[in-house]
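Dear Dr. H.,

I hope your travels went smoothly. While you were away I took the liberty of generating a structure for the chain from your last submission, since the lab meeting agenda had it listed for discussion. I wanted you to have the full record in hand beforehand rather than looking at slides cold. The sequence, exactly as received, is reproduced here:
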Amino acid sequence: MTGGHTGWFVTVDGPSGVGKSTTVRALHEHLRAQGRTARRTAEPTGTALGLFTRGHANEVHGLALACLMAATRYEHIDRVIEPALRAGELVVSEHYLPSALLLQRLDGVSLDFLTDVSRHVLMPDLAVILTAEPGDIAARIAGRGVTHRLRLDPAAPAREIGLYADAASCLVRRGVQVLLLDTTDATPSDVARRIADAIPALPPASDTPAPTRPQDP
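The corresponding predicted structure, in token form, is as follows:
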């Protein structure tokens, strides 16, 4: 359990178009059917800082964007993740550190810088990284339209898969359990079941609500 907390922290990352949102929804449905509850969260967050970062990601580049993303992540940990884990909750975050280690590298930021700025980031108990065939990913992105400048490169899906493999290696070196799942021919329910099977049974969460702070000043 992360950092001595009684809860458990799961992150779900992967290239654009790989089915992260669908998988996270299916995971929550699967856990609910088992009588297990989880706090669902995502990055960028809905705070003022998170909304600013999301709204300006096409305008802010390189080191500046990497620092904004890191600041949003630290705020996310402080306001949402750590309080929930202290209360014994299961936390599932769509997007976390692996996405930063991928997107900011596509934006020209070195892995050394990203590792340094993320030195104090809370590590997940389980980092799920979804993948798929590059052609399948490209078709999904084309079907819904490109919404970010980093998706304009037609070679991006193949590059993302390779960089996510690097991110997985970085996490393993930091003692994180990594689960790599190919979604090319798997249904969201199948993927969700694989993730749920890797999450241990937790004792009942504390009846005392986790302390939270207002999402906006």
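Two observations you may find useful: The beta strands are 8-13, 39-42, 90-94, 126-131, 177-182. Residues 210-217 have pLDDT under 50 and may be disordered.

With kind regards,
E. W.
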